[in-house]
Amino acid sequence: MTTDRIEKRVVGAIFATGLLSFSGVIVETAMNITFPTVMREFNVTTSTVQWLTTLYLLIVATVIPLSAFLKRTFKMRRLFITANLLFILGLVLDGSAPAFWVLLLGRAVQGLGTGIALPLMFNIILEQVPQSKIGTMMGVGTLITGIAPAIGPTFGGLVTTFLSWRYIFVFLLPVLIISFVLGVRCIQQKEALQQGKLDVSGVLLLIVTFAGLIFGVSEISSGSIAPALVWVAIVVGLLALLLFVRRSRHQKRPILDLSPFGTTSFSQRALAFVMFQMLALGLSFVLPNYLQLVNGATALQAGLIVLPGAALGAALAPISGRLYDHMGPRRPILVGASIVLLGMFAFALLPMPLSNAEIICCYLVFMLGIGLAFGNILTDALGQLSALQQADGNAIMNTIQQFAAALGTAVSSALVASGQNGRSQIDGTALGSRWALWLLLGFSIIAWLILLRALRQHNKA
C-alpha cells in the first residue's frame, strides 16, 4: 500500500513546474485573443502578429530536445531556477515593450524558460510517481497546463477590454514567484548526474530545421517575401532535419536519442499526438480571430465564447487519466478521438457564417474529445518504451508537441491570410477560416485512423 503513495514533495514539485508551464501556455492563448489589438497598436499584419505564438513555440521546440541531456548533466532544482528567472525576464520585456520586435524578444526568452520547465514536470512524474498512479498524475500535469487554454482567452479578453494587453504579463508575476518558492523547497534530485558534452552542431541543426520549416510554412501565403525564398527555407529545413537524424544515429549519446521511433507502437501514437496538437493550436488561432473579425465580437466576448469548451477539456484531463489507470488506453482514447472527429465535421460542414452559438456547441464537442484522448495518448506512447528510453521519449513527445503547435498555428494563419488577400476583412477572414477548418478536419481523420489501427493492434497483443 505504501508503495502507491505519492510523496508530498513530489506533488509540490509537479505543481511548481506545472505553474511555470501554465504561465507559458496562458500567455500564448491570452495573446491570441489580443492579436487584432496588437496589430492595430504596432501596425503589423496577421501573418506578422502570429509570430508571437510561432516564435515562442519554435524556441520551446528547440530547447526541449536538450531536456534529456540537461536532466543527466544538471540538478533539477538548478534547471528549474534558471527556467523561472528566464520567464520572469521575458515578462518584463513584454510588459514594457515599446516596439513589436521587443515583444517578440520577450516571447523568445519565455520560450527558453518553458522549454526547460515543461519536460521537467513530466520527467518528475515518470521518475518519482508510482507506476499505478502514472495515468492519474499525467492527467494532473495535463490539467495544470490545460487550465491555461481554458482561461487564457477570457483572461486576455478581460485584461484587454478593461486595462491593456500589457497587464497580461504583469498579472503573471505573482504566479511565477509562487512557483519559484514552491520549486526551490520541493524539487529533489533522485538520480546521480553524469558528465556530458553538448552537441553544438546537433543543436544548430535543430534550430535550422524548426526555423526553416515554420518560417516557410507561415510565409507561403503571406506574399511578404519572394516565393522562391519561401521554398528555399522549407528545403533547408528538411535537409537540416535529415542531417540531424543521420548525425543522431552515428553518435553514442546524441542530444536527442531517436531510437524510440524504432518502436512502431510509439511512432503511431506520436503521429496521432502531432495531429491532435495541430488541431488544438490551429483552432485556438482561427476561432478568436473569426469571432472578432467576422462576427464583430470584442476580445472579451471572444474569450467568453471559447471558455466553456476549453474549461471542459481541462477538467476532463485528470478524470481521463484515472480512466486510463483503471480501463487501459483503448476505450478512453478511441472514444475521445471519435468525439473530436465529430466536432471537426460540425465545424467544417456547417454553412458560413458560423454563429456564436454554433461555435460554442462545436467547440464543446471538440474539447470533450480532446479531454478524453489527448493526455492519454501521451501516457500510452511513453508506456510503449523501456525505462531507459523514457527520458528521451518524453523529450521527443514534448518536442513534437511544440513543433506541431507552431506548425498548426502557422498553417492556419497562412490559410486565413490567403483568404484575406484581395478581399474585405470580413469576407476574406471567413473564407480563410473555412479553408483552415477543412484542413483541420483532415488532420482529425488521419489521427482517428492511426489510433484505430494502433489500439486494435494493442488489443490483439
Describe the structure in your own words.
This protein has helices at residues 8-42, 46-49, 51-63, 67-73, 76-95, 100-128, 134-162, 167-186, 200-219, 227-249, 264-293, 299-327, 330-349, 356-382, 390-420, 425-460. With 461 residues, the protein is an all-alpha fold. Helix 11 packs parallel to helix 15 and helix 13 runs antiparallel to helix 16. The two termini are 29 Å apart. The model has no long low-confidence stretch (mean pLDDT 81).
CATH class of the largest domain: Mainly Alpha
How many helices? The count is 16
- The CATH topology of the largest domain is given as Growth Hormone, Chain: A
- The oligomeric state is single chain
Rg from C-alpha positions?
21 Å
End-to-end CA span: 29 Å
Outline:
The protein has 461 residues and is mainly alpha-helical. Helix content is 81%, strand content 0%. The chain is globular.
Features:
single chain, 461 residues, mainly alpha, Growth Hormone, Chain: A, 2 domains, 81% helix, globular
Can you lay out the helices and strands and say which pair or pack?
Elements: H1 8-42, H2 46-49, H3 51-63, H4 67-73, H5 76-95, H6 100-128, H7 134-162, H8 167-186, H9 200-219, H10 227-249, H11 264-293, H12 299-327, H13 330-349, H14 356-382, H15 390-420, H16 425-460
